[in-house]
Amino acid sequence: MDSDDEKEERRSYNWEKGIDKTWENIGEDDSDLRAQERKRKKRSTQKAIQNVRKGMTRYVFVVLDLSKSILDKDMKPSRLTVAVKTVEAFILDYFDQNPLSQMGVIVARSSLAEKITELSGNPSKHISTLTSTSTNVSGEFSLQNSLEVARSTLCYVPAYGSREIIIVSGSLSTCDPGDIFETVELLKKEGIKVHIIGLSAEVYVCRAVTERTSGSYHVALNEPHFRELLLNLSPPPPSSSKTETRLIKMGFPQRRADISPSLCACHQQPKYGGYYCPQCQSKCCELPTDCQVCGLTLISSPHLARSYHHLFPVPYFIEHVPPVAQKTFGRDEAACLSCRVALSQAAVYTCPQCKGNFCTECDDYIHDSLHNCPGCEMQSRHNR
Amino acid sequence: MAWEALRSNRKIEADGALSAPRGLTQDDTSLLVVLLDTNPYIWSQRKQKELEWSSVLEHVFNFMSAYRLLKHENRLAFISVHPGESKLLYPGSTDPTGTDMEDIKNEIVTQLNAHTRNEELLKSNSGWSPMLSGALSLALCYINRIQREEPLIRPRILVLHASPDVSNQYISIMNCIFSAQKKSILIDTCILGSNDSPFLQQASHLTGGIYLKPSQQKALLQYALTCYLPDPFARKFLSLPTLTRVDFRASCFCHKETIDMGFVCSVCLSIYCGITLVCQTCGTRLLQMGTAKKPLVKKALPAAPK
Ligand SMILES: [Zn+2]
Ligand SMILES: [Zn+2]
Ligand SMILES: [Zn+2]
Ligand SMILES: [Zn+2]
Ligand SMILES: [Zn+2]
Ligand SMILES: [Zn+2]
C-alpha cells in the first residue's frame, strides 16, 4: 500500500526521533525528568477528575500480528517476544482497571485472522492461550480479515458497552480480500473504535482506519515507548455519546462450599463449591458471568469496587518546594503524615482536603496504587 | 484445602505476583504491621466471656516478642486503630534504638496512654467509629516506604479488631485491599468483637491471609502463635482455619444496605437497590432496563442525552 520511498522516509524520521529523544533524556537532570513526569501525571489526574463519565464496561478485541514481519530483530530480543510480553502486561492491567469488562484475542497470520479466545473476563486464559499460539508465525498480515473477525463478535455485545479493537502490527502492508473501507464503514456504524499501534513505520491505511473510527494510531519508537502506548489504552476511556446509558440488573451471589457435589450450570459437571444465582438458585463456577439459566449478570462486589477509585479519585496534592514546618493534626513535627519520614530535604505534598503533608514516595503511592488519602480517611465523618 | 477452592479466578494475578519475583523461602526477613483496635468505647463494653483490654495488650505483646524471636532481622510496626485518628506508635518518631522488646513495649504503652488520655469525652459517643480504613492506609504507606529501602522484605499485616464495620468506609477499605493484593501483602485478621466483619473477611480472602474469630478469647495468644506466627512458607505445610463462606454481597449507594440483587449504572457502576432515572453519582440520565439484549444492539443507537 505504501510506496517504498515513503517507507524509507518515515523510517528514518522515526529512527532519528528515537535517537533524539534518548539523547535529550541523558542530557537532562534527573530531578527535571521527575518533575516533568509529575506534571504529566498531574494533568492526567485532573483530567480524570473532570470526566466522571467513563466507559466502564468495555468489550475489546486485541489483535496481534503474527505475520513474518514480527520476527524482525529491531527490538531486543525480537519483536515477537517484546510484543507478546507487552500484550500480556496489557491484559493484566486491562482487567485490573476494567473489572467488569471483557476481552478476546485474535491472531493474524497467513493472510487470515483467527480468534483464539472468545470474549471473556478471565485474564489467565487469554495469557496462556496467547503464549501457546504465538510460537507459530507465518505469512502476511491482513487488516481487513482481522477487523471482520472482531466485528462479527463485537456487533452482538450489549449496547451500553464500549466496543474497541486494539491492533498491534509490525507489518507495512496488508493482504486484504476486498475493499477495506467497506469494512470501516460497517465498523463506524456499529460504533466500534479501532486503535492501532505500529511497530515499524506509519502506514497510510492504518491511519485512515483509525481516523474514520475515531480511534488512535501510534508508531512505537522503541520498547519502552511501545509499552507506554499499549498500557495507555488500559484505563477506561471517556464514554462516548453513542453508547447507551442504562441501569443493568445484576446479582451478587455468595460463595458457598458444599458438603456434597452438585451440578453447575456452566460446565454441567458435579462441583463442590460455587456461586448461587440469587434469582434462580442455579450454580456457576466463576464470576463475573451471565447466569446460564435466567440470564442475570452475576458479579461479586469486589469486582465493582475495583473501579470505584475512578469515581472518587484522591485530590491532587499541592507541592511545596521548600519544606514548610506546618502543623499536621496538632503535631509539630515536620514528618510525612503516613510513613513518618522527616520532610526536611525533599519536596512536601499537601492534601487540599485534610491539609496533611506527605513525602514524594507516599504521594506517588497514594495516587498510583492506594487511591486513599490516609489523612482524609482519619477524619471520621467524611462522606463518601 | 478449602482455601484453594475458595479462590476466584481473578485471584490468580495476586498469586502470580507472589511467586513471580522470588520463590518463598524459609529465611525471608519479614515486616509485621500490627493494627490494634483501641476504641475505648468498645473496650469498656466487654461482655463476660470476652477478653479485657489489658489482657489483650499482654497477649499482643507476647505475640510480638515471639515474632521477633523467629529471626533477628524481623521488623515490627504497631498502629492503633483509633476513633478520629489512627497512629503509627512504633517505630515512633524518636530514635529507633528499641531493639529490646521491653523498650518497644514501653514506647507503645507510653504512646498509647498519651493517645488515649482525652478519651473521657468519647466514651459515651458511639458515633465515633475507629478509622480502620485510615489505619490500613497508614500501614500500606509505611510498608511502601520500607519496601523502597529494603526491596526484599516480606511484609504482612495483622488486624486485631473488635468494633463493628462502618459501611461508609467500604470503598476506602476495598481500595486498601486491592493495593495490598497487588503488592502481595497478606492481611491476617482476628475478630475480638461479637460479630463477624464482612470487610475483614474479604480482606483476608482476597489477600490470602487468615480470618479468625476465636471462640475462646482467653486463648488468644495460643491462636495467634499457631495461626498468625508462621510465615507464608510455613503455612503451606499447616492445616489452618478456612472460611467456608465469604459474603461478597454489595451494599447499595442509596441506603447503604446489603443487597444480593440490584441495579448498576452502566457509566459509573454505582449500585442502586431500586430503579432510578438519574444516577446520583455521575448524573447520567438512565434508560429503562431492556429485557433482551440482541434486538437492542441491532437498533440504530440514538445519542444518549447528557
Ligand atoms: Zn461450571
Ligand atoms: Zn439465574
Ligand atoms: Zn511518606
Ligand atoms: Zn487528605
Ligand atoms: Zn438503596
Ligand atoms: Zn452513574
From TrEMBL, chain A:
Taxonomic superkingdom: Eukaryota
Signal sequence, start to end: none
C4-type ZnF: 277-294
Gene3D superfamilies, A to Z: von Willebrand factor, type A domain, Zinc/RING finger domain, C3HC4 (zinc finger)
GO cellular component: transcription factor TFIIH core complex; transcription factor TFIIH holo complex
A single GO molecular function term of this UniProt record: zinc ion binding
Biological process annotations from GO: DNA-templated transcription; nucleotide-excision repair; regulation of transcription by RNA polymerase II
Stretches the record annotates as Disordered: 26-48
Alphabetical list of InterPro entries matching this protein: C1-like_sf (IPR046349), Ssl1-like (IPR007198), TFIIH_C1-like_dom (IPR004595), TFIIH_SSL1/p44 (IPR012170), VWF_A (IPR002035), vWFA_dom_sf (IPR036465), Znf_C2H2_type (IPR013087), Znf_RING/FYVE/PHD (IPR013083)
Residues covered by the VWFA domain: 59-200
Localization per Swiss-Prot or TrEMBL: Nucleus
Keywords of the record: DNA damage, DNA repair, Metal-binding, Nucleus, Transcription, Transcription regulation, Zinc, Zinc-finger
Family: Belongs to the GTF2H2 family.
Protein name according to UniProt: General transcription factor IIH subunit
Organism: Planoprotostelium fungivorum
TrEMBL record, chain B:
Primary subcellular site in the record, as a coarse category: nucleus
Location of the protein in the cell: Nucleus
Keyword Oxidoreductase: no
GO molecular function: zinc ion binding
Top-rank taxon, per record: Eukaryota
GO BP terms in the entry: nucleotide-excision repair; regulation of DNA-templated transcription
Family note: Belongs to the TFB4 family.
Function: Component of the general transcription and DNA repair factor IIH (TFIIH) core complex, which is involved in general and transcription-coupled nucleotide excision repair (NER) of damaged DNA and, when complexed to CAK, in RNA transcription by RNA polymerase II. In NER, TFIIH acts by opening DNA around the lesion to allow the excision of the damaged oligonucleotide and its replacement by a new DNA fragment. In transcription, TFIIH has an essential role in transcription initiation.
Subunit text: Component of the 7-subunit TFIIH core complex composed of XPB/repB, XPD/repD, gtf2h1, gtf2h2, gtf2h3, gtf2h4 and gtf2h5, which is active in NER. The core complex associates with the 3-subunit CDK-activating kinase (CAK) module composed of cycH/cyclin H, cdk7 and mnat1 to form the 10-subunit holoenzyme (holo-TFIIH) active in transcription.
Protein name per its UniProtKB record: General transcription factor IIH subunit 3
Source organism: Planoprotostelium fungivorum
